[in-house]
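hey m, so remember when u said the C-alpha cells were messed up on ur end? i reran from scratch. heres the input so u can diff it against urs
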Amino acid sequence: MKGTEKQLTPTKCLDLNLMLLKLGPVFPLDVSSSTWINILYKGYISITVFFYLVLTASAPLYIFCRDYPLEVAIELISIFITQIRSGMNIVTFIIYKKEIQNLITSLYRNFYIHGTNLSAEESSVVREAMDHARSMTIGYVTLYSITGLSMILHPLTFKSTDLDQDDAFNHTEGPHRILPFKTWYPKWDTTKSPQYEIEYFVQATLTALEAWCVSCTDTFCVTLMIYAGCQFDLLGLALKNMNKNMKSDIGAHKKGTNASYPIQTLSLNNSTLPVIPEENEGKIRNNVSTSGRLKASDESTLQDKGWEDGYHVPPTVKSCMQVERETATYIKECIKHHQSVLVYVAEMNKCFSTLFFVLFMTASLLICLLGFQVIVKPPRGLMFVRVLLHWLCTVFELGFFCWYGSEVMHKSERVYQKAYDCAWQDLFSGAKQFIPVIIMRAQRPAAVRAGLFGNICLPTFGTLMKNAYSYLAILRQMHEGDGA
C-alpha cells in the first residue's frame, strides 16, 4: 500500500504540465528561488509579448496596404485569427497568474476525501486519470510541435516549380524568398538581406514559442478538467462504498477493543449478577451468568440506574456511539469535498471563461477558412501539410475542450445517483439528514463555461462544426461565382 500511495502523490498529477509550461513564457509559479532567475524569466515573457504584438500587427497592415486575391485574403485572415487565439492563451496565463496558482494549490490540497489510504477501485480511478492526462498531453503537444515545425520549414523547402501555386499563399515580391507568414512593414524590404534573414528568424522563433505555449496552456486546462471529473468519481465511490467502509472501521474498532473488556457487576432487584462482555460470531453481547431473560421491571431498574456508582458505558454502547459519530463525520467530509470541487470548477470558469469564449467564437470561422485552403484550392508540397495540420489542431482543440467539459458535467451529475444508492436507509437517523444535502447539490451539474457561449460540451462542438460547414459552403459558392 505504501508503494501505491507514493505513486499516487497528488503533486505528481501536474508535474508534466508544469514542466512544459516552464519552457514557455506562461509558467504560473516562481521559476526559481533565485530573484535574478525570476527577473530574467519576466524579461523572457516581455520579449515574447513584444514580438508577438509586432507580428500580429503585420497582418492588418498587409490587408490595408497591399492588393491581393481572395485566396491571399483568406490566408491572412486565418493567420490573424490564429494570432488572436494564441495571444489570448498567453495573456490569460499572465493576467490570472495568482488565480491559477490557487487552482494548483487547491488541487493538491483537496485531491483525497478520507486520506491517502485508497481502495483498489479508487486507486484505479486516480491512476487512470493520471495516465490519461499524460497521454493526452504528450500527443497534443507533439501534434502542435509538428505543426509549428512545418510552418518554419516550409520556406526552406520551397521550390521554384511551386511558385504558380504558392504565389497566392505566401511569398514576398522577390523570387524564391518566402516567409512563414505574410507581413508588411513600412520601409522594410524583405527581398533584401539581411532584412529577410532577420524577419525569418523572428517569425520562426515566435512560431515555435506560440505553438509550444498554445499546446501547453490547452493541455493544462484540459488536465484540470480531467482531474475535476476524477474528484467527482472519487466522491461517487466514497458514497457508494460508504457502508462497506464504515463496516471495516467497525471491525477495526472491535479488534482494537477485544482484549480489554472489563468484568462488571449489575444489581437487579437486590440481586447481583456478573456480566462478562464476550464476542460471538462477530457480535458483542453481555453474558449474564444466570438463566432466563430480564423482565420489564428489571430493564426499568437498569435504565433508572443510569450506569452510576462508578460503572462505565459497556463497549457495545461505546461502539454504537462511535460508529454513529464516525458515520456523520464521513458524510460531512463528503459534503465538504463536494463543495470544494464545485468551488474548484467555479474558479476554473473565473480564470478561463474569457479565453474559452474567444476560442469558441473564432473556432467556426477558422475551421472554415483552413478548410477552404485545403479543399477548394489545396497548395502543394509542405504548405499543404502545414495547412492541414493547422486545421487538425483547431478541430482537436475544440473537440478536447468539449469532450472533457461534457465529462465534468456527466460525472458531477452522477454524484446524486451514487448518493441515493448508498443504502442510506440503514444509516442512523442523524446521518440520514445529510444525504439530501448532497442529492440537492448534485442535481445541478457543474459545468465549464465559455462565456456567452454557455457550457462547454459535445452539443456545443456539434453546433460549431455545423456552423463551420455552413460558412465553408457559402465561401465556396463565392469563389466559384468569381471564377465564372
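this time it looks ok to me. The CA atoms of residues 222 and 400 lie 7 Å apart. if urs says something different then somethings off w ur setup not the seq
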